[in-house]
Structure formats: C-alpha cells, structure tokens
Specification:
The protein is of the alpha+beta class. It has twelve helices and nine strands. 50% of the residues lie in helices and 15% in strands.
Length: 397
C-alpha cells in the first residue's frame, strides 16, 4: 500500500473543502435538513455537475469518473466534516455498487449514467432494522435477516405480469426523496425461501413513503410501504450471489462511512481546540491546563488512528484480493467520533449543551450511525468471527 495521495486525490479534497466552507455552515445545514428533500437540492446538483460526486467511484463506461473507493472515502471525509445532508451515501456508496454488481447491462445503462449525472438518486430498503446485518457488517448477510419467509418484512411474488412486492421497510436512508428504490424482499415461501433484490421506481403505484423523525436530522430516513408494487428483479435469482454482493458493498460502504466519521471527529476536535484557546478561566485559557491538554491529546490520537484505519480499509476495498476490514475501520471511527463529540460538549462548557451550538449535531451523528451500522461491539465481534479468531476447540470427555 502506498500511503501517499496523488495530486488528483489532493485536489478532490481541496476543492470539496473550499466548497463546503462556502456553502455548508451550521446554519445552512440546519436549514437544509428542514426542507422536504432533507438536503440542499441546489448544492447536490452542483456536486454532481461540477465535481461528479455521485459517479466518483463509477467506471467511465457508465458515465462515472472512474475513481475508486479511496477517492469516494476522501470526498466523504470532507462532507463528514460539515455533516453534509445529501443522498451521497445512500446513492453512491450503497445503491451504485449493487446495481453495478448485480444489474443486467440494460439495467446498468438505464440507471448508472443518470445517477452519475445527478438526475437520479437511489436508496437501499432493507426490512426491519437489519441494515448492518444485510451488509455483512454485524452478521452474516446470508442469514434470515429479511424475515426468513415468515410474515413481516417485504415479500415478493411473481405472476403473469411480473414481480410484485408487499410489505414494509423502515430506516431507509434518504428513502423519502430517492427516485429509485433497491428493495430486499423474500420470495419462495418456506420451501425455497430466499432473499433477492428488486428495483422499484419510487413514484410507481403501490409505493408509499413517509419521512421518519430521527435522532440525527442530517441523516434523513424514511418508512417505505409497498402494496403490490410492480418491481424488477435486480441480478440473478440466486440468494448466494445477492448475499455476496451485499457483503462486498457493505465492506466498501463501511470504509466510506469510517472516513466520513473521521472527518466529523476531526472537525469536532478542531472546534474544541479553537474554543480551548479562547475560553479563559482563572485568568488563563482553559487549553493551557494540563488536564485539558491530556483530554484533547487522547482525542487527537484516536482520530489519527481511525483515519489510518479508514484509509487502509478504503484501499483494501478497491482490490479484488483485498481484506474485508471495513467493519473494523468503521468501529474504530465511530469510537473516535463518539469520543470527540463527547469531549466537544464537555469542554465547551455551558454553551456546548445549547441547541444553537453544533456540538450536539456531531454527538447525534455518532449515536445515530452506531444504531444504523453497529453497534461497535457487534462490528468487532462479527469481524472476529469472520476471521476465525475464537474458534472453540472440541474437548474430549
């Protein structure tokens, strides 16, 4: 692994940081999340048209920029610094890889160029609260996380008119504003129960979407209700192939999420250090007290370690023979973000607890992401199980 970034990668970071500084202050972020879309639609069009962000990790053949997960992770590190509410994660990190891996050539040509141009956004809808398991981060993606053929979740049936879905999925990232839904549904009943992925136009008959109240407003979620909605099968009728695609996508998405969390943690630390230099107590800046220095130094070490892990995971995700360490990197990054956000609130004193200050937004991002993609101890436990670290030996009686 070459730890040095290329000039192109540095330019991606620089350009995004400059744009974020101009367009995404705390007030702009709070205003954007209160719009019906849950994000600044004009800024999203700018990111798509001028920077090609939705297609950053998409091949040029399908309208993308032709970069890798590393470039997407670097971009998300910058958007994470400002807690940018956007469809970037749901579309570029979750939906695009699945369409590219599983879709037919016709499906890829119909969807991917429009996604790369910013004309379409997409969202992955998984039944219940099983997103982390479906992506192979906290459990086996080959399991019965989608209901196991029993009542509940989303069910699929095929008749003479094609596939139809019925059921419900909650906590769908950007599901209320996405143009295309990738829905995980069970079919086959008990005899041949299997989980497959389906494409559903969000505006089609039988689809109802309700934006949910969330802990982290910068991470909009929705409840998707399907009532005999017409669907198109994405990929083969093979549950094992779908599970493998979900696990590979989850590994890369976890690396991207880890970089995003590192960006948020770094910004929370940066703001806290600035405040500690200015706030005076007993006639001197609080940052001059040894106890405060030690606490900030601990946060700095945690952020730098998480950054190294995120970069390595993103690099590994771009290799065919790379290790699947996205879950471990994500666990370390979420730990760092929770620590940085907690210290930001504490060291800002009274102002850190106010609604007007943005410190609470970083803390909510840490808590919300752990609920969606963790918890941290399960990310680490599943990684250990996958690596076979704690294989029990049979003891002769």
């Amino acid at each position: 692994m070459d730890a040095a970034f290329t000039a192109e990668q540095d330019e991606i970071r620089r350009t995004l940081r400059e744009l974020m500084a101009k367009r995404t202050g705390p007030d702009e972020v709070k205003a954007a999340v209160r719009t019906p879309a849950g994000h600044d639609a004009d800024l999203w069009r700018t990111l798509a048209a001028q920077l090609g962000l939705p297609g950053l990790a998409l091949d040029e053949e399908h309208g993308g920029v032709g970069c890798t997960a590393t470039e997407l992770a670097l971009a998300c590190e910058e958007t994470g610094r400002v807690l940018l509410p956007s469809p970037l994660l749901a579309t570029a990190a979750l939906a695009v890889p699945l369409i590219r891996r599983l879709g037919t050539e016709e499906q890829r040509r119909a969807l991917l160029p429009k996604i790369a141009e910013g004309e379409l956004t997409a969202a992955l809808a998984v039944p219940g609260v099983a997103l982390a398991t479906a992506l192979g981060l906290s459990g086996d993606s080959r399991g019965d996380w989608a209901g196991g053929g029993r009542a509940g979740g989303v069910q699929a049936r095929c008749d003479e008119e094609g596939w139809r879905l019925y059921g419900q999925a909650e906590q769908v990232l950007d599901g209320h504003s996405a143009d295309v839904l990738l829905v995980a549904a069970h079919t086959g009943g008990f005899a041949r129960s299997r989980t497959l992925l389906f494409l559903v136009p969000a505006d089609s008959a039988g689809v109802a979407r309700v934006r949910q109240t969330t802990l982290d407003e910068t991470r909009p979620q929705a409840r998707i209700e399907l009532r005999d909605a017409t669907a198109e099968l994405l990929g083969p009728d093979d549950a094992a192939v779908v599970a493998e695609a979900l696990a590979a996508t989850g590994n890369a998405a976890a690396a991207v999420l880890a970089a995003e969390a590192v960006g948020a943690a770094d910004r929370a630390l940066e703001r806290t250090v600035e405040y500690a230099k200015q706030r005076e107590q007993f006639g001197r800046a609080i940052g001059s007290f040894q106890a405060v220095k030690h606490r900030l130094a601990d946060v700095y070490v945690a952020v730098q370690a998480a950054r190294s892990a995120a970069y390595y995971a993103a690099w590994a995700a771009g290799r065919d023979d790379g290790e699947r360490v996205g879950g471990l990197a994500l666990a370390q990054a979420l730990d760092a973000l929770r620590t940085a956000a907690g210290e930001a609130i504490q060291l800002h004193g009274g102002i850190g607890f106010t609604w007007e200050h943005e410190a609470h937004l970083y803390f909510k991002r840490a808590a919300s992401d752990e609920l969606l993609f963790g918890p941290v101890h399960r990310l680490r436990a599943h990684a250990a199980d996958h690596a076979g670290l704690f294989v029990a030996e049979e003891v002769a009686v």
